[in-house]
Write a structure and sequence with these properties.
binds flavin-adenine dinucleotide; single chain; 9 helices; 5-stranded parallel β-sheet; globular
Length: 320
């Protein structure tokens, strides 16, 4: 059995979950292993999530418990390890999200299993798993192998095509868990209010750098263009550090990795640390007044010009 730990947000199954299901299907092809895919839903009041994911897998295991209302790495890892052991899973797939990256090593330790992180391809043959992942700021792709009866794998978001739901639904089963006593206490929560699509889920990302001039310039050019295109907003570290934008919008080595269909870089020089977070985008458009800016080396389309003149002109055309 392949166990996929379902990620969801705001009452909906996240894109990363559909991508993990595709990764599970890819790994199972010609593998000679038990290729049935089981989705595990952890949380409280998660019936709608379980019903949604049931359309793309062979079975759904649901742990709907008040104790799982808040994500807690100790509870999540205990639950996943228990279910993987009981179900004799050969593969445990976890999203490469912040939380997934946090609790996946704990699951691997509990299962005494190898951990393959942030993978972009996945194949199984007998007990051997072969995966690829980016390294050296995503300039090199390395191939890694693990030979073990069970392996834990985190899937890089935005790489695999999301699986398409079928008409029929898989059976759902409630599971009993023996969870440890929680040691983590949430004392406060800050909810970011945004009407925009999430950065790692978006098909179009409009990002701004120091070339937009100021926080006001960012609103005037980057946010305005993103709103017009129904896109998510991203930023470079330079302007996040300057306090123009929140850290949650930072794209790059120490920020988020995005892989949208279209990435529009406005007033961004193209430092390697920024490129490593967006250089796998399908189409890259760069706007910069310096024709020698490194961003143009990876851009599919480039406009050399001043942001203050180009963006208003583009917005006027789009509004027509
Ligand atoms: C360990 C480490 C980790 C890092 N992690 C990240 C990361 O995750 N993400 C990240 O982004 N950076 C990261 N950085 C920082 C990175 O090295 C760069 O400093 C940063 O990306 C530069 O941001 P920028 O492109 O906005 O600014 P700049 O490099 O200053 O570029 C501004 C660009 O705007 C252009 N411009 C200026 N005015 C205009 C105008 N009016 N019209 C058009 N174009 C204009 C300029 O020609 C220039 O190319 C990291 C650095 C280190 C050392």
């Amino acid at each position: 059995m392949i166990l996929v730990v379902v990620e969801y947000a705001n009452g909906k199954v996240s894109k990363s979950t559909w991508e993990m299901i595709t990764a599970a299907q890819d790994s199972a092809k010609d593998s000679g292993r038990d290729a049935s895919i089981t989705a595990l839903v952890l949380g409280s009041n998660v019936a709608a999530i379980a019903a949604e994911v049931a359309k793309a897998v062979d079975q759904v295991l649901v742990a709907d418990l008040p104790a799982l209302t808040q994500y807690d790495p100790e509870l999540w890892s205990a639950a996943v390890a228990q279910i993987a052991t009981e179900g004799e899973a050969s593969l445990v797939l976890i999203g490469g999200s912040r939380s997934g990256r946090e609790y996946s090593p704990r699951v691997a330790i509990k299962l005494d299993a190898p951990l393959l992180e942030d993978v972009i391809t996945l194949k199984a043959a007998g007990e051997t798993l072969t995966a690829q992942r980016y390294t050296y700021l995503a300039r090199v792709t390395e191939t890694i192998e693990a030979a073990a009866p069970i392996a834990v794998v985190t899937i890089k978001p935005g790489v695999f095509n999301p699986a398409t739901p079928k008409a029929e639904s898989a059976e759902q089963f409630d599971v009993d868990l023996s969870l440890p006593t929680p040691r983590l206490k949430i004392t406060d929560k800050t909810v970011e209010r945004t009407s925009r699509v999430g950065l790692t889920e978006a098909e179009i990302v409009v990002s701004g750098g120091r070339g937009v001039g100021s926080a006001e310039g960012f609103t005037q050019y980057v946010e305005a263009l993103a709103d017009q295109l129904g896109a998510a907003v991203g930023a470079t570290r330079a302007i996040v550090d300057a306090g123009w934008r929140p850290y949650s919008e930072q794209v790059g080595q120490t920020g988020k990795t995005v892989q949208p269909k279209t990435y529009i870089a406005i007033g961004i020089s193209g430092a390697v640390q920024h490129l490593s977070g967006m250089n796998k985008s399908k189409t890259i458009v760069a706007i910069n007044r310096d024709a020698e800016a490194p961003i143009f080396k990876i851009a599919d389309y480039g406009i050399v010009g001043d942001v203050t003149q180009l963006i208003p002109a583009i917005l006027t055309e789009l509004k027509k």
